[in-house]
């Protein structure tokens, strides 16, 4: 959203329209059925995940169009022969906000406005990194006076009344954002564009032998042993480099696999992807009714006591997820059951290097602890946040282990722990929360010591297990 981005770039005020020839696809607010199919192309057998021979750009010469071939080799690896839209490493995030100043082709407009190569913009569209709204959303408080001026100009009632695409819509409805999926899309003056110029990348997708990661294939679903450092179903700026996309390609499916639940990018293990909408709906229902059982293996820096562990998680959809041992009104209950905990060797240097495990500077690195966990509630980052909160953080967890180390150094620093420092005012408590958040690190880009080792439902009749976790080295016989 516009409000979440500090750096904004809005084009100059609207100029006179330059109407294009008929036949261009015009952006409009999708219908409910269109929303359900927002990732599909309109032509038969032309799906967003399928290999494309080329992207045809309006008013572009053949020299400006390059192949986009994708194929699965015999060993299950997927090759990507086109120039990638950015380097394989993650660049500093860059999001640009534009208000279209004249009617035209979306690719051409963005390319000109941001001075980006047309091939680069075409790849961004392929990645799902460009979004639009018929009317520009309200600028954030950080917007410049010029940006606020432009917003007011393009949202004047007299200006909006002249746009036929807004007929029958409220301004609030027209400000909803949708993903652009077609490089040939036509945009009219006044359309808002959000361009993720540097999308988050998942280069590990190209390194994986996806054949070896398939646990089961049925008529309704696929069970995947998800690799760490990959996304389940994508993000707001990358729907290309995902487990769902690569598994769909490898299996040669005519219909893309659908996500039924989430696993953190840095976590590996059992992932269920639906083949049909019906199964997706059924599986969601089973999760709501707590009929899906999930077992995890966690590699921790300290021994974890067996038994039930309960916390309450702050209802804020931002990382790090903060938890409290004591009940707080409105916070979500998080529960897990530690079934067993055994001592194991700390991962050796070669294993750490191979899997790019982050060094979180834990003082003792001789012994680790492997725990089997029955996840009773399924909140984002729950296992990671709960284990760190009791001083037994997961190895390699660059976000939560630093906070656990900080709490060891200063037991009063966690404002939600029983040994917290009492605050005399709301301002002091807010400052304590801000300080506690600053003790956490960034989200890991590689693996951490956490695996979704088993998933089952239907009273155990459907049960699947992942392979050995990364920290277990296979011995050659």
From TrEMBL:
The Swiss-Prot or TrEMBL record annotates one GO molecular function as: pseudouridine synthase activity
User: Which SUPFAM superfamilies does the annotation name?
Assistant: Pseudouridine synthase
Give the Gene3D superfamilies listed for this entry. Pseudouridine synthase
TM region(s), chain numbering: none
CDD domains noted in UniProt: PseudoU_synth_RluA_like (cd02869)
Q: Name the InterPro entries on file.
A: PsdUridine_synth_cat_dom_sf (IPR020103), PsdUridine_synth_RsuA/RluA (IPR006145), RluA_PseudoU_synthase (IPR050188)
Tell me the domain of life: Eukaryota
Q: Which residues form the Pseudouridine synthase RsuA/RluA-like domain?
A: 221-389
Q: Give one GO biological process term.
A: enzyme-directed rRNA pseudouridine synthesis
Quote the protein name from its UniProt record.
Pseudouridine synthase RsuA/RluA-like domain-containing protein
**Organism name:** Dendrobium nobile (Orchid)
């Amino acid at each position: 959203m516009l409000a979440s981005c500090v750096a904004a770039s809005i084009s100059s005020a609207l100029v006179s329209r330059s109407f294009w020839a008929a036949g261009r696809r015009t952006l409009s607010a999708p219908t409910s059925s269109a929303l359900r199919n927002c990732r599909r192309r309109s032509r038969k057998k032309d799906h967003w995940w399928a290999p494309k021979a080329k992207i045809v750009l309006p008013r572009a010469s053949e020299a400006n169009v390059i192949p986009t071939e994708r194929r699965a080799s015999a060993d299950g690896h997927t090759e990507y022969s086109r120039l990638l839209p950015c380097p394989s490493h993650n660049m500093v995030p860059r999001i640009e906000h534009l208000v279209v100043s004249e009617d035209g082709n979306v690719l051409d407009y963005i390319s000109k406005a941001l001075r980006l190569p047309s091939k680069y913009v075409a790849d961004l569209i392929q990645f799902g990194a460009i979004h639009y709204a018929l009317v520009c959303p309200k600028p954030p408080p950080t917007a410049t006076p010029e940006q606020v001026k432009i917003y007011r100009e393009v949202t004047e009632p007299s200006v909006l009344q002249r746009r036929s695409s807004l007929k029958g819509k409220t301004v609030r409805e027209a400000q909803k954002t949708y993903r652009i999926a077609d490089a040939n899309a036509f945009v009219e003056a006044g359309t808002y564009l959000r361009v993720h110029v540097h999308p988050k990348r998942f280069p590990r997708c190209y390194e994986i032998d996806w054949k070896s990661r398939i646990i089961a294939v049925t008529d309704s679903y696929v069970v995947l042993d998800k690799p760490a450092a990959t996304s389940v179903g994508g993000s707001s700026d990358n729907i290309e480099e995902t487990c769902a996309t690569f598994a769909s390609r490898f299996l040669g499916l005519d219909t893309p696999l659908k996500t039924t639940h989430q696993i953190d990018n840095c976590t590996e293990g059992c992932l269920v992807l639906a083949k049909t909408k019906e199964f997706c709906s059924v599986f969601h229902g089973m999760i709501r009714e707590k009929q899906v059982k999930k077992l995890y293996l966690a590699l921790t820096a300290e021994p974890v006591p067996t038994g039930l562990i309960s916390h309450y998680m702050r209802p804020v959809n931002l990382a790090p997820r903060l938890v409290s041992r004591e009940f707080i009104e409105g916070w979500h209950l998080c529960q897990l059951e530690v079934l067993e905990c055994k001592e194991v060797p700390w991962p050796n240097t070669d294993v750490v290097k191979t899997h790019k495990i982050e060094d979180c500077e834990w003082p003792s690195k001789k012994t680790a602890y492997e725990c089997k966990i029955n996840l009773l509630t399924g909140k984002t980052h729950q296992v990671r946040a709960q284990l760190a909160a009791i001083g037994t953080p997961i190895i390699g967890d660059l976000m939560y282990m630093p906070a656990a180390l900080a709490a060891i150094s200063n037991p009063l620093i966690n404002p939600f722990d029983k040994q917290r420092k009492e605050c005399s005012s709301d301002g002091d408590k807010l400052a304590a929360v801000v300080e506690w958040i600053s003790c956490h690190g960034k989200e890991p880009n590689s693996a951490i010591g956490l695996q979704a080792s088993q998933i089952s439902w239907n009273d155990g009749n459907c049960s699947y297990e992942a392979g050995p976790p990364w920290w277990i080295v296979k011995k050659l016989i």
